[in-house]
Write a structure and sequence with these properties.
Layout (H helix, E strand, L loop, with lengths): L2 E6 L1 H4 L1 H6 L4 E3 L6 H10 L5 E6 L6 E14 L23 E16 H6 L17 E4 L1 H11 L1
Parallel strand pairs: 1-3
Antiparallel strand pairs: 1-6, 2-5, 3-4, 4-5
The structure holds a DNA duplex.
Length: 153
DNA sequence: GCCAACGTTGGC
DNA sequence: GCCAACGTTGGC
């Protein structure tokens, strides 16, 4: 089993929105970055654990945990002209973009803030805290996962 | 294949 | 709203 971190803007779709979905499950569409796409398509497996990270908001940090319920499949929004994720250059015979389904698992009592994460020397190598990192789907090591869980309490 | 221009991300 | 950092595009 592997660990991941998915970024999301809670103003658009946050952990509370996931909780309110039927079966507390939602497809993670709209990822339009090739490196993140490769993770979604090739590497993220059923049962993998995911930190939900809230970005671009007043409380930036990890909000809780979700679990992968369905492995990579074609993100249909790339073919929908009405979707903001529409990609006219994507060929239906060879789709560019993929997504997975995740189910809510746990919400932290408090957001585990980016500030706290950055302040922990043991997490200095996390991809999340590297300068200029913009990946919206990234791997988390088992060691990092354990430390973060302990910090979340 | 290079690289300037552009658009986007995301913390602050 | 600012702006640094990055990925993508497209002319050459």
């Amino acid at each position: 089993m592997n660990y991941w971190l998915f970024k999301t803007e809670p103003d658009a779709f946050g952990i509370n929105d996931l909780i309110e979905r039927p079966q507390q499950t939602e497809h993670w569409d709209g990822v339009r970055n090739y490196q993140a796409r490769n993770f979604l398509r090739n590497e993220i497996k059923l049962g993998d654990q995911v930190f939900l990270y809230h970005s671009s908001c007043d409380k930036v940090g990890i909000a809780g945990i979700a679990e992968v319920m369905k492995e990579g499949y074609v993100d249909h929004t790339q073919f929908d002209p009405d979707s903001k994720y529409y990609d006219p250059k994507s060929d239906p015979d060879k789709p560019r973009w993929y997504m997975v389904d995740i189910r809510f698992k746990r919400k932290f009592d408090h957001i585990l803030s980016l500030q706290e994460i950055k302040a922990n020397p043991a997490l200095a190598d996390m991809q999340l805290v590297q300068k200029g990192n913009r990946l919206s789907v990234m791997p988390v090591t088992a060691g990092e996962w354990k430390i973060l869980l302990a910090m979340a309490g």
